[in-house]
Fold this sequence. Notes:
The structure holds 2 protein chains of 2 kinds.
Chain A: E1 25-34, H1 42-65, E2 68-75, E3 80-86, H2 90-98, E4 102-103, E5 106-116, H3 119-124
Antiparallel strand pairs in A: 1-3, 1-5, 2-3, 4-5
Chain B: H1 2-22, E1 31-35, H2 46-56, E2 60-66, H3 74-79, E3 86-93, H4 96-104, E4 111-115, H5 119-127, E5 133-135, H6 148-157, E6 160-164, H7 165-169, H8 173-192, E7 197-200, H9 212-221, H10 226-231, H11 235-248, E8 252-254, E9 257-258
Parallel strand pairs in B: 1-2, 2-3, 3-4, 4-5, 5-6, 6-7
Antiparallel strand pairs in B: 8-9
Helix pairs in contact in B: 5-6
Amino acid sequence: MDNARGEGGEMKGLKNLPLSLRERKRYIAFKIIPEEGEDFTYSDLQAGIWNTLLDFLGEYGVSRTSFWLMKDCWDEGQKMGILRCNHKSIDVVLTSLGMIDRLGDNRITFKILNITGTINSIKKKNYCSFKG
Amino acid sequence: MTVFLENWFIKSAYKINLGSLLFCGEVMKCFDLHVSPAFSEGRSSPEQIIERARLLGFSGICLVDGIKNYKPHREIKSSFDTKKFGIFIGFEATKASDLDRLVGKRREFDILIVKGGDLKINRRAVETPEVDILSIPEYERIDSGFNHIMAKLAKTNQVALEINFREALNSHKSTRSHIMQKMALNMMLAKKFRVPVITTSGAFSHLQLKDPYILSSFGVLLGLTPEESRAAISKTPEDIITVSKEKQAEEWIMLGVKVVK
């Protein structure tokens, strides 16, 4: 029986795509260096990144990057996080991050820590506090 | 067998590409040759800039001043350990008269940058072998300010063309798209005529300094290959610094000519 169907034949969910058909992802670990005495929240970060991406690339452009900011991997203490995009759009995503110099009223600088092909290799290097 | 070999080649090429990206900040020496500190037009002290550049993974930076109050700034170099982190002093000419004055004092500083924009100064810059970098030839112009003849001259005199990230950072919407279009056109000419290209942040404060990964990616967006783009932040600036040291020596007369004792 098809794995995607239950005992009664009803659909349980989509069957996973074979590896060869899946999109090739890249995980970018980043750290944000805020100015002394200035702080920001995760929602500032989310709004800042999405607004800049949409300004710089447009809605269609962002759709081509498969961009995703991974909320579970945000480390509030260290100000480190991970975002995901596809392997063809690393350069546009990184340039867009470079266009961000403020989050709300706070001045910040992005430092790129690592770019990997799997989330596990980032976790091994302790760039991500989320172990789930 | 052929399929196996092809797959192996693709996999190994993928590994090399990803590996070199991974080591960008650690193995490759990255330089930012255009930063304006507080003694120039900038807003941050040299200490703040150097601290932030180290944090971002640069191996050296060039602090750029204008000709207005000419001073070689030797005390900055002596106050830092330049063996661990390269600190270079550059001067920027915006007019032909400034360029003449700076060419006369060429042995006193490390890097000579010409801020382009005007066609005459763009042309003078690429014709002068003492000049190291032509910065933003497209500045406030409708055209790109750089053509195939200038490209040939720049190649002959080894004048590097600069991609300045601040130009894109400080502009918005249609202005940014125009600037990037002109930069891409200049990059196409630079690639065709093998003009050296460097990518800089052009920062006016330590907050505008950008990560080497980001500068490298910006080059790729403007039409450089990943290898060329990486060279624009590492190998080419390193070559400029080496040639510049030769230019500062008393034996140096012009490109390829020096006194042998």
